[in-house]
Q: What sequence folds into this?
């Protein structure tokens, strides 16, 4: 590894991918091997569509980077990185069914190309594969962390079902949803990297805190981009959250500042689901009027800074620097 000028010019996740290329190749080979099925050819068809659609493989990169940064020289981090990606892919398959989504990573979703039954059952298969992989490490604590993360993700998704279309949902409940459905896997990805490396408890905790804060910032930014990003950046159609009546942070902040007329608008489009072609533009106008997108961006920046601070006591290294800069880069997607 080196910190050359060319490397520094790259985005932090691209530098991580370069430095961890050998490990990431092993992860990808393991993923392809374990997503195969002799008896159900639909499984590799569906998983290949999503797994091989691209994406930055950010979560497995976090596991690899954490383990290597902390001096790990074995190979179990490859199994853990593949585990994290399988859990993530399974949740995407299930999410697209729940949300009735049509695009993922710039391509038609699996449920659109096949059907909801295939997406749900293949997601279940990937969850099962992920548990097989984590067991193979022989590390009970790793199994505990990833099993808890899987349960927390499901809990967060169910909480979102009840909270997403209720205008009484506040920032605290929103944060609980985000910490469940998104941040739980980020924090598990970094925590298991530290555990498999045999890091001291304060370092394990620091890596958990880093992943948790990074995941919160990441999701808030995604929610902001839904109201102003491009499909190429967010991998789905802009306005999808609005059309799916999801009460994300920008809307929560706008509802808190709403006039009676504006609140009536939010009740109609979010709680009642009575949406008209011009409503997304009206929603954007309200968000702009109250500075809700800028305020949500400030919240994301706060969590990105918390992620950076979590790494503050770790020994400086190229990987530590890239992970620190990654927190800022997550928010810079808004620029």
A:
């Amino acid at each position: 590894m080196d910190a050359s000028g060319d490397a520094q010019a790259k985005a932090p996740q691209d530098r991580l991918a370069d430095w961890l290329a050998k490990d990431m190749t092993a992860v990808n080979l393991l993923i392809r091997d374990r997503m195969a099925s002799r008896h159900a050819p639909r499984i590799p068809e569906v998983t290949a569509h999503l797994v091989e659609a691209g994406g930055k493989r950010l979560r497995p990169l976090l596991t690899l980077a954490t383990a290597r940064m902390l001096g790990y020289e074995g190979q179990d981090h490859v199994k853990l990185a593949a585990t994290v990606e399988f859990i993530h892919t399974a949740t995407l398959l299930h999410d697209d069914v729940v949300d009735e989504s049509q695009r993922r990573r710039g391509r038609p979703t699996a449920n659109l190309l096949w059907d909801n039954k295939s997406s749900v059952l293949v997601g279940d298969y990937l969850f099962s594969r992920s548990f097989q992989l984590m067991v193979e490490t022989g590390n009970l604590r790793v199994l505990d962390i990833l099993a808890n993360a899987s349960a927390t993700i499901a809990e967060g998704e169910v909480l979102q079902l009840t909270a997403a279309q209720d205008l009484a949902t506040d920032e605290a409940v929103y944060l609980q949803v985000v910490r469940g459905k998104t941040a739980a896997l980020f924090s598990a990805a970094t925590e298991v990297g530290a555990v498999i490396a045999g890091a001291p408890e304060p370092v394990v905790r620091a890596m958990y805190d880093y992943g948790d804060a990074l995941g919160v910032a990441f999701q808030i930014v995604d929610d902001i981009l839904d109201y102003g990003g491009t499909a190429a950046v967010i991998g789905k159609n802009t306005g999808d959250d609005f059309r799916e009546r999801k009460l994300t942070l920008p809307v929560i902040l706008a509802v808190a500042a709403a006039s009676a007329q504006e609140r009536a608008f939010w009740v109609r489009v979010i709680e009642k689901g009575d949406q008209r072609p011009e409503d997304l533009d009206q929603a954007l106008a309200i968000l702009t009027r109250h500075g809700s997108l800028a305020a949500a961006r400030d919240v994301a920046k706060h969590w990105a800074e918390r992620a950076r601070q979590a790494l503050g006591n770790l020994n400086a290294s190229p990987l530590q620097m890239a992970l620190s800069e990654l927190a800022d880069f997550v928010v810079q997607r808004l620029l």
